[in-house]
Amino acid sequence: MVEFTVRRALRAVLTIWIAVTVTFFLLRLLPGDPTLLVVEGDMTPEMQQALREQYGLDKPMLTQYWLYLTELVQGNLGTSFRQLQPVGDIIVARLPWTLTLAGSAFVLTVLLGIPLGVYAAAHHGRRVDRVVQMFGITGHALFVPSIAILLLVVAGSWLGWFPIGGAIDPDTRGLAAYLSLFHHLALPLVSLVIVQLGPYALTLRTNMLEVLGEDYIKSARGRGLSSRRTLWKHALRNAILPALTLMGLQVGTLVGGAVLTETVFAYPGVGRLIFEAVGQLDYPLLQGAFIMLAITVVVANLITDVVSMLLNPRIRA
């Protein structure tokens, strides 16, 4: 197990390094000069050159890359061009909002997807099974911003049931603050769950149908075990592993969906931060945000690999 975990960890480090490298060079291919957006008003060529030297933008690309890696290894993500604050501090202030949204969507998807998938498999060919299949295919085809905009317009603007932006009402304390938090979180959360829930439930349904056709399930029924116990204790235990692996792999999609959803709902997470930083050509802030999201996805997949191995030791082979 230790060797397996170490190999996966080394692969995760390599993946993060590739993500850092690609992000660094892609951002510098964006058109425009970030020094023009650092300060308000006109700048003389001398002022612009001084800013370029201050932020190291006058150096060759490979030199900038090496200096960035050197600082990154020491835990320094740089200083924001626009906000003139450490990038790490800015991201740390925004990251909890993204983790709250993405984490809530993950948990809710699993809690709803398991009974949906199991119930559909147990009623194979019936109306509820066809509804789950249709919901799964539709959810897989939907685009997160489309659902978010629809909910924003209908439930937020027309009906006025939910706020159309932000994460919490100002000047709220205690229970009122938690209620406000959940009130603002509802629409972004539903947007993500609708897209994630269908494919997850459909995958679990398919796995359950395969397991229910195995000989040991038929033997369990032949020994007089109840259908409920056979379904939830024996079949689900073996069918949930591929679905769990799929959910771990979909963390990237979930994080990407959270970024898009935050932009639509003006939710103050890392996704909204990326949207703001793109317009400002804030290289350090963009790099830091992408790196944090990449690390989140890679670590989630690493945890999924280890958990899958613990549940099924044959994976080590």
List keywords for this structure.
MetI-like_sf; 317 residues; ABC transporter permease; globular; mainly alpha; single chain; transmembrane; MetI-like
Give the helix tally.
Answer: 12
Distance between the termini: 11 Å
* Backbone shape: globular
Let me know the number of strands.
0
Oligomer: single chain
Helix content: over 70%
Low-confidence stretches: none
Strand-residue proportion = under 5%
Rg from alpha-carbon coordinates: 24 Å
Mean pLDDT rating: 77
* Main sheet summary: none
SSE order = HHHHHHHHHHHH
The helix-and-strand class reads mainly alpha
Describe this entry's structure for a reader.
It contains 12 helices and no strands. The protein has 317 residues and is mainly alpha-helical. The chain is globular. It is found in: Cell membrane. Keywords: Cell membrane, Membrane, Transmembrane, Transmembrane helix, Transport.
Question: Which secondary structure elements does this structure contain, and how are they paired or packed?
Answer:
Elements: H1 2-27, H2 45-54, H3 61-73, H4 87-122, H5 127-141, H6 144-158, H7 174-212, H8 215-222, H9 227-249, H10 251-265, H11 270-280, H12 283-311
Helix pairs in contact: 1-12, 4-5, 4-7, 4-9, 4-10, 4-12, 5-7, 6-7, 6-10, 7-9, 7-10, 9-12, 10-11, 11-12
Brief characterization of the structure:
By secondary structure, this protein is an all-alpha fold. Helix content is 76%, strand content 0%. It comes from Nonomuraea cypriaca.
